[in-house]
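Here is one such protein, fold included:

. . .
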Amino acid sequence: MASHGVPRTSAGSERPTGKGREAELQKIQEYRTLVDKVNTKMHEKNYTTEVLQLTTQLLEWNPEYYTIWNHRRRLLRHFFDHGNPNNKNNNHNNETDTSHIQNHLTTDLTFLIPLLRKFPKCYWIWNYRLWLLSEASRLLPPPTTYKLWQQELALVGKMLSIDSRNFHGWGYRRKVVAAMEELSPQIDASSTDDRSSMTEAEFEYTTRMIKNNLSNFSAWHRRSKLIPRLLDERNASFDERCGFLDE
């Protein structure tokens, strides 16, 4: 993991010499200058889209620098609370504010996709992405938020199709499903707990993933957590439970 904002390097990698070494030192200096610039502007509470773009550059360089993710959260929270920083007239209405917030959230979710492809096991990317969606649940109408979570479930499905044993992805999928189940009754007031449950669908998903790779221990673990809930939702008798576990 990165330490104090310095990207990790392979211990066994050979250090460049000559012009290569000069280029490396220049990149390090550029990185440190950018870090200092961002930290200074945040200390001065200079919450602008320009600073947001600077954090984008830093995170593309080093996504394990968790302080910069926190800076980005503070910037977005400021934008959410005070409206569009580019709107000099500062005119607010609910529809405009909602559109502005959704714009920021979807833009940031899109920004993270290439990072996830490049660093699929970087905890801070997954953590920040979950924060964005939690903000959507807090600030946007339930139908709009539910669509974002649905898109997220599709995304994590694609990620797991590439690396089916990525435990970050499996843990993230569990949180996405939980959020969708919580939102479902708000979308359809007539839905019941059973109808909003995704247990059956998730159980079938683990079945497919295990058939593709029998040694997918993340899928087995997820399945083991689903089984008790699945049997409860089916109102399974003692004999039915025994028969299910014997299969």
Observations:
- The mean pLDDT is 87.
- Residues 19-43 form the longest helix (25 residues).
- The chain has eleven helices and no strands.
- The radius of gyration is 22 Å.
